[in-house]
Design goal:
The structure is a single chain. The protein has a single domain, classed as TonB-dependent receptor, beta-barrel domain (Maltoporin, Chain A), CATH 2.40.170.20. 15% of the residues lie in helices and 47% in strands. It contains 14 helices and 41 strands. Helix 9 crosses helix 10 and helix 10 crosses helix 14. It is globular, with a radius of gyration of 30 Å.
Length: 847
């Protein structure tokens, strides 16, 4: 028995010694043991708990990945972007910023706006990422997800951005299955008084603007204000697209290579303001009595979408050019359309958002027992207005009434809106953490009340929401009476229903987390979150993490995540209107993180993950609506990071790779806004991405230069589709050519397609420089796309609607998909714009 106890004791002593850090060893004083004059132990003097005790206890701890606090060494798998990183990055907005610093992050153009890809995931709307600003979820839950903050061009009010990828995102609730973007804005930060004025200009986009901020602080009160204005005219890019449905199949650049309207017109302006209305951002923060935080924030963003569409001529009517008779003597009319006098950007969106939040924290830590509690509370009210304008308004009527002609000439008329609504959310959150020597336990609850209704300043008959805008106010709606081709509905063909002034939903959540550190070298965290939505089945989020902060150099973490995503509010309501509860979309993930910090200057990290994900959407069966999975897939990936930091030199490098390990499974059916699983997950995804940024400071840190390089390649599924569907279809077309002239046209078409070298490596280089002329004046300049091997190409997201939607149905009836039919759709994903060389200039004045 003594031998057994001796072995156990030896293992304990060895483990304890292995867990000690260099700092702990230096603090160990031998004289306390060898030259102790007294054999009587005297306990340390009791110190009354105060605010300094909380600061001491929470030092070197964070709550980024947990509800409570834990040592930084146990928080892995996140990217921190500081205010300095933001100031020095050549970035137009948050989308560019993520593409510069976050491993594996990139973005594409899409019909609904710009969409983010991370860790192998990308979809037509940013519904699987959560964006939180100072703890408030600012996603639009009704239709588009993360949008407003991502596309606002002014980033000067942001103090820090943290991007969490992988299993740690589960704690932020449903919808955080792919990642979380946590934004912290600048506060007074203890400065007595400071005022900043900034101005900015960016060439090519003809963008200019500025901001003003003021911060003041004293013992009891901190106040900060920020206001910005940014106007962007945009530019008309070189846009490569195709026309596969006209008399002639054509590929080429819009406005240059096409013979058939509308592809022969100027491309849609890129990154321009919606209706020439500038972007605005207003924010105020008040901290009083050192405990209460009151925040107000207004942001707006908007512009054209798609990227490869043409500017649209507004049709105002039809005229009869001539009348002839057929062989039977019946009249035959020749019509032509009437258009407005100038091109307009009909395909565009606008989003405006206003948020108010009030938060309070109570904390108490006992110095003698190292026990205490942390209580956090927050109430927030968030309202946002959304308009999504479409470009398909035209009429086939031979005669157009004068009232209709006027409406067609007004681009602000509701008949042009695919979506036009507001979303207002009230959120209450309360959580409490009890800390004890070897861990923490957290319990919390959250309540959300959401109202979807009439847009800001609109009339009830202008309301339009739902997939394809299929919910309207009543039969008095301004979109009733127009044909489906016109973007409207007739009462007999109305597909969803009337919703009056809108509807509301409520959601309750309960969450808990246990974090234990029985030894210095191990930490176990278990989290569960239960979500009950009025129109959905119960959703669970679970996360289990085992961390090994072995010593000051090595940290390991194993995580398991089971998460769910609810449908959008419009999808849930559509399902509920047929007396059904929607099934949440499931996400299973496993990740491994390793961090190695050999010295203060160097940091290395590895993250490996494997995910099994579902893709859910509206499903129509027997004229009933269901929200359910339409497919699933499994894939794995790896991310490698290396960072070097010194007083004057910083280098960051990362590499990511996504590897599908199971062919996507597609469940046949009739889906509203259908998305093909394979296309959604992989055809838009560069399987390998490498990034490098280098920063150098000189002249006593008064001057700084930075270079950012990134490369994307290995579009494996897109290349596979080209090899199996497109190129054989070209060969098929050559064999069925009926004349030498037709054969020559087909070969010329194929050559145009091949010359684009589809889905080759895309690499580009950006640079920036900053000079601190005095303590009060800083000038910065940057260049976007200084070098590119692929013309600064930015692809357009392919939703697979036309490329694949017929395949399962045809296969279900034993019909083989014809190669020529496949050709008609598959090349449509080869759409892109060429981003220009851009020069930017910023001026910062501190008063």
């Amino acid at each position: 028995m003594k031998k057994v106890l001796g072995i156990v004791g030896l293992i304990f002593i060895t483990a304890t010694g292995f867990a000690q850090t260099i700092t702990e060893l230096k603090d160990c004083n031998e004289e306390d043991f060898l030259n102790n004059k007294s054999t009587t132990y005297t306990p340390p003097k009791y110190v009354l708990p105060n605010s300094n005790m909380w600061k001491k206890w929470s030092r070197n701890r964070n709550n980024r990945h947990t509800f409570g606090f834990q040592k930084s060494s146990t928080s892995l798998g996140a990217t921190i972007i500081t205010a300095e990183d933001i100031a020095l990055a050549p970035a137009r907005n948050l989308l560019d910023l993520l593409e510069v610093y976050v491993p594996g992050a990139y973005w594409l153009n899409a019909e609904s706006g710009k969409v983010i890809g991370m860790q192998g995931w990308i979809a037509s709307r940013n519904l699987r990422y959560q964006v939180l600003v100072d703890g408030v979820n600012v996603n639009q839950q009704t239709h588009s997800g993360a949008m407003n903050e991502l596309e606002n061009w002014d980033l000067d009010d942001i103090a820090q951005i943290e991007v969490i990828r992988g299993a740690a995102a589960a704690r932020y609730g449903t919808g955080a299955v792919a990642g979380v973007i946590l934004i912290s804005t600048k506060a007074a930060n203890g400065s007595k008084k400071q005022t900043n004025i900034n101005g900015a200009f960016m060439s090519s986009y003809n963008s200019m603007g500025g901001n003003f901020s003021h911060r003041v602080s004293n013992d009891d009160l901190d106040f900060s204000f920020f206001g910005s204005w940014r106007k962007t005219a945009g530019y008309s890019p070189k846009a490569f697209s195709n026309n596969l449905n006209g008399e002639h199949i054509e590929f080429g650049y819009l406005g240059q290579d096409f013979r058939v309207a509308p592809f022969d017109k100027t491309p849609l302006a890129f990154y321009n303001d919606y209706n020439n209305a500038p972007q605005l951002k207003l924010a105020a923060h008040l901290r009083f009595r050192k405990k209460w935080n009151l925040r107000l924030r207004y942001t707006s963003a908007g512009g054209t979408v798609g990227g490869t569409a043409t500017q649209t001529l507004q049709q105002t009517g039809m005229v009869i050019d001539s009348v002839t008779t057929d062989v039977n003597g019946f009249p035959v009319y020749a019509y032509s359309r009437e258009y407005a006098n100038e091109l307009v950007n009909l395909k565009a969106f606008q989003t405006r958002q206003f948020t108010v939040s009030l938060g309070r924290q109570w904390n108490y830590i006992d110095s003698s027992s190292n026990k205490g509690y942390i209580i956090n509370s927050q109430v927030s009210w968030n309202t946002q207005d959304y308009e999504n304008r479409r470009d398909t308004m035209f009429t086939f009527n031979t005669t157009v009434p004068e009232n209709t002609r006027k409406r067609l000439s007004d681009i602000d008329d509701p008949i042009y809106k695919k979506h036009n609504f507001s979303e207002t959310t009230l959120n209450l959150r309360l959580s409490g953490t009890y800390a004890f020597p070897i861990g923490q336990i957290t319990l919390g609850t959250e309540y959300t009340h959401r109202t979807i209704g009439i847009g800001w300043g609109d009339f009830a008959n202008e309301l339009r929401v739902g997939e394809e805008g299929a919910f309207v106010n009543s039969n008095k709606s301004k979109v009733i009476g127009f044909s489906a081709q016109q973007g409207g509905f007739t009462p007999s063909t109305f597909s969803e229903g009337f919703i009056g002034n809108g509807w509301y939903s409520y959601q309750t959540e309960a969450f808990s987390e246990l974090s234990l550190s029985p030894a210095k070298w191990v930490n176990f965290t278990a989290m569960s979150r239960l979500t009950n939505h009025a129109y959905s089945k119960t959703a669970w989020n679970h996360r289990f993490a085992l961390s090994f902060p072995i010593n000051h150099q090595h940290s390991l973490q194993l995580s398991r995540q089971i998460a769910h995503r609810l449908g959008t509010e419009e999808q849930l309501y559509a399902t509920y209107s047929y007396d059904n509860l929607a099934s949440p979309e499931r996400f299973d993930g496993v990740s491994f993180n390793y961090q190695f910090t050999p010295t203060y200057h160097w940091r290395f990290a590895v993250q490996a993950y494997q995910n099994q994900v579902e893709l859910s959407n509206l499903h129509t069966r027997q004229n009933l609506q269901y929200f359910r999975p339409i497919g699933k897939t499994t894939y794995r990936g790896i991310e490698l990071e290396a960072n070097y930091t010194s007083k004057s030199f910083n280098i960051g490098a990362n590499y990511s790779k996504v590897m599908p390990i199971e062919a996507p499974t597609y469940f046949p059916g009739n889906y509203a806004d259908s998305l093909h699983v394979q296309t959604t997950f992989f055809n838009n995804n560069p399987n390998q991405i490498a990034k490098l940024w280098i920063r150098y400071k000189f002249f006593n840190n008064r001057a700084t230069v930075q270079a950012n390089f990134r490369a994307m390649w290995d579009y494996a599924y897109a290349q596979k589709d080209l090899n199996e569907r497109v190129y054989p279809a070209f060969d098929e077309l050559e064999t069925v050519a009926e004349s030498p002239q037709e054969l020559e046209e087909i070969r010329a078409l194929k050559q145009v397609f091949l010359q684009q070298n589809p889905y080759n490596m895309d690499a580009r280089l950006d640079i920036s420089a900053s000079l601190k002329i005095s303590d009060n004046i800083v000038i910065s300049a940057y260049v976007l796309n200084l070098w590119s091997n692929n013309k600064g190409r930015r692809y357009t997201y392919d939703d697979g609607l036309q490329a694949h939607e017929a395949d399962p149905q045809l296969a279900q009836f034993g019909v083989a998909v014809d190669k020529v039919v496949s050709f008609i759709y598959s090349p449509q994903r080869l759409k892109f714009i060429e981003e220009p060389l851009v020069f930017g200039l910023k001026l910062n004045l501190t008063l």
